[in-house]
Amino acid sequence: MSNIKLEEINQENIQGYTLKGELLNERPFSIKDAGIDSKIFHVWKAKGLVDFVERGKWARLSLVEYLWLRVLETMRKFGCSIKLMKNVYDELFTRAFKENLAEKNLLNNLAYYQNLKKTRPLTIDETRLLQKLEEIKNDPLNKFGFKREISYFYQLVLDCLKYKSESGIIIFEDGTFSKFSNSPYEAKKGNADLKEVARPHLYIPISSYILEFIEDKEKDKFLIKTGLLSEDEYRVIREIRNKNVKSIKITFKKNEHTVEKIECDKKGLIKGEEAKKVKALLGLKNYAGIQLNTRDGKTLSFTHN
Predict the structure, then answer these.
(1) I need a labelling partner for 261 at 20 to 30 A (CA). Which of 40, 138, 193, 227 fits?
(2) SS3 sequence, 167-211?
(3) Residue 173 included in any domain
């Protein structure tokens, strides 16, 4: 078990665990929602590329599984072989299961909160979370469920969503590959370094699928359910689509003294590139604060820590 530094209190906070539950437990997507042809999906299933889908059942996907199908589709369109896809799947999913990545994470997080409890009283949320972790540890069925669901690909998705980090998969000309993440909290072992990135490669960024997801109006019903957007964030996107925005003021996360104000035209329209920028900031949580003024006189202000 690795040592947990108490100064890294934000590494596994309550918000992060809420997000984990939404990523894993909610399964609102069908194969059609992922834009995958059913015949192609059945080939992938037969080749062991989607073992998380049980045999004899209709496939219902979590957000992590949805994003994995999008990665497979990208690899297919770039001409990657089934053998290469299987190698990537085994590295990101099968290896995590064999190494019991879920239990390692569970024990590390338990140690973190147990050590934190020795330094100060836990908050109500922290106490509940510690109790939940202990329940999972002592329940074989829960532990097995987590073992199946926690993967290295899941960690890449979490890096992108929770830590606002660039993450993805890098594939080189010789068929070798590496996962990449610049998360400040994740160990860099197994990630491509700068020397490797200098080689010719195909980079598949997780963030591209998240932004694609947010841009798709047909996915609106999933935005809050999957935890991609809060209700306030979704309202900003809804008002943009309804042409009901007067102005949006954004305080940026990297420098809280940097503020950008986006004005709309007389019809309430935001220019295409600026609308995409706002959606990207919301989807990847790269902002400190948002203030929305609508044409019908309403104001919405919220922050993101």
Answers:
(1) 227
(2) EEEEEECCCCEEEEECCCCCCCCCECCHHHHCCCEEEEEHHHHHH
(3) no
Give every CB contact of residue 247 below 8 A, 6+ residues apart in sequence.
261, 262, 263, 264, 292, 293
Q: Are 86 and 48 in contact (CB under 8 A)?
A: yes
Structural domain total, the chain? 2
Render each residue's pLDDT in the chain as its tens digit; 305 residues.
Answer: 233 232 332 344 444 444 455 555 677 888 888 889 989 999 999 999 998 776 656 778 888 899 999 999 999 999 999 999 999 999 999 999 888 888 888 888 888 888 988 999 988 888 888 888 888 788 776 666 667 778 899 888 888 877 667 889 999 999 999 988 876 655 445 565 555 667 888 999 998 898 888 888 888 878 777 777 888 888 888 888 888 888 888 887 655 445 666 666 666 667 677 788 888 888 777 778 888 888 888 888 878 76
> Cα–Cα distance between 134 and 39 in angstroms, integer?
43
Least Cα distance to 82 among 53, 35, 43, 34 occurs for 43
Taking the model in full, what pTM does it have?
0.78
The residue from 178, 213, 228 where one domain ends is 228
> What is the token pair recorded at 150?
């926690």
Give a yes or no: residue 176 inside a domain.
Answer: no
Tell me if 171 is assigned to some domain.
Answer: no
- In angstroms, the Cα distances linking 182 to 22, 112, 238 are 23, 23, 31
Tokens coding 266: 């007389």
Tokens, residue 131: 């109790």
Let me know whether 223 and 239 are in one domain: no
Place of tokens 């992590």: 64
- Read off the tokens for 282: 């919301």
Q: Where are the alpha helices (DSSP H) in the chain?
A: 14-25, 38-46, 63-77, 82-89, 95-98, 101-119, 124-138, 140-149, 152-162, 194-197, 206-215, 220-223, 231-241, 272-283
